[in-house]
Amino acid sequence: MMHAKVTAAVSPVVVALLWQLRDEPLAACLCMAALAGLATWCVVPAATATFKRAGLSGADLAKPGRPVLAESMGVAAATIYLAATFLFIPLQFRSQLAAPSRHAFPFERLGQYLSALLSLQSMVFLGFADDVIDLRWRYKLLLPTIASIPVLVVYYVGHGVTHVVLPVFMRGWFATNTVDLGALYYVYMGLMAVFCTNAINILAGINGVEVGQSLVIAVSIIAKDIANINSSNPEAGYCHLFSLYLLLPFVAVSLALYYWNVYPARVFVGDTYCYFAGMTFAVCGILGHFSKTLLLLFVPQIFNFVYSAPQIFGLVPCPRHRLPKMVVESSIPAGLVAKLQRAVDADSAAACDSGFEAAPGSRHPAPATGLDALHRTISTAMLSFSKTERPAGPRPRRPSAHAAAYLVPSRAALAGSRPLGLLIVRLYEQLGIADVERDAHGAMVSVNNLTLLNLVLVQCRRLTEAQLNNRILLIQLANSALAFIIRYQLSNVFY
Ligand code: UD1
Ligand code: MG
Question: Keywords of this protein's UniProt record, alphabetized (predicted)?
């Protein structure tokens, strides 16, 4: 097991480094992050069987044969993250712990850090609850608002700024340079926590994409923090340091999780990871005083949410899963196809007898249709036809059985749509961002599911799952570059 060997070899070195650098909080944070990453790398595969036994599993819907994988593995990463951040508390305040007077201790900074961890912990709890009992949308909106209260209170006590600087062209209208939004600013930050947590969860459904987008956003914020850490204003400098303290361990555990979740995934990260990641960004944005820059980094998620709105708000039917559809193209000989079809028919008949075919212990039972059976049977046949041996290691990176599986946009029937929903779909069609199917009379019959993943596929026709994940990460990366140009170059034009 490569990960176990590397961890066994590297951990003692990192612990020794941590001991040497214990008086340097940022260096100590880096060491803690490395240890947390190594721990996640080892714990995730070790916990897989236990999670499956506990019924925490789901079918990988974009693969032939729909293999069953352990679900909610984000809870392992988040727990290790919380352990690392808790252990970091004495290291962060080590120099002040020895101060002669208790009044010299920076309780305000400790309160800031603890409130961040409290909000994060609440969201991990909510995410895990969602994975286990599939919460209703109203709770997914209400609970992040409540979870952000500790952070908002600390922001308030810390004389949090509630005014916004007006762009130059608006200053004449209001006869002032700034507007104080007061309580509205807190509403805006509370809404940001709700948005960040849910936005990652709805840009999901293919291997690697939840963790991948979070990694790009986190690394972008880290780059911004490093560039600004030596600010002439010590409070502003500490805001960036604070954000680094939270994000370095986040990136470490996310990288380890990405290793197991990227195509071909061995585990799913679950809603737990999506909420944990979203709240980490919201907390950094609020307490680090860069909520507007954060929104710029979230533009792909904002686009995905606005684009999805007709389905999310029930104006157009919204299937339980909107992830792209898998198609298999194979060069299996025609004779074998006939044989496969007979196997499919037999499989379908058996499935009809039993009603459902659920993965053992799965919370997401998949109805066994003729198509499912076809996927399974073709996948088995392709495995036996494969000339390439499966790699001996624990992680087959490119299983030949999936070589001919592509993703195409999944679709939603438009029957039952509200008139406003149909109007928006028509608008999307005119803008060239929706693929609408029409009947012989020109009436709209179906549309691609309204997600960024499906939209990329509408433009590219078909991609493999790995290619689609890479495209989304490229979009996220390009967005980060654009966000920094807007924030640091163009803002001079407007402000
Ligand atoms: C959100 C999306 C839903 C999407 C789902 C996929 C909205 C309103 N909801 O729902 O459209 O289908 O996420 O995560 O946009 N899965 C895979 N491959 C992956 C990741 C997930 O097949 O790489 C499947 C697995 O069956 C897994 C399930 O998605 O068990 C997880 O779905 P869940 O997180 O419960 O869906 P939601 O967050 O409710
Ligand atoms: Mg989800």
Answer: Transferase
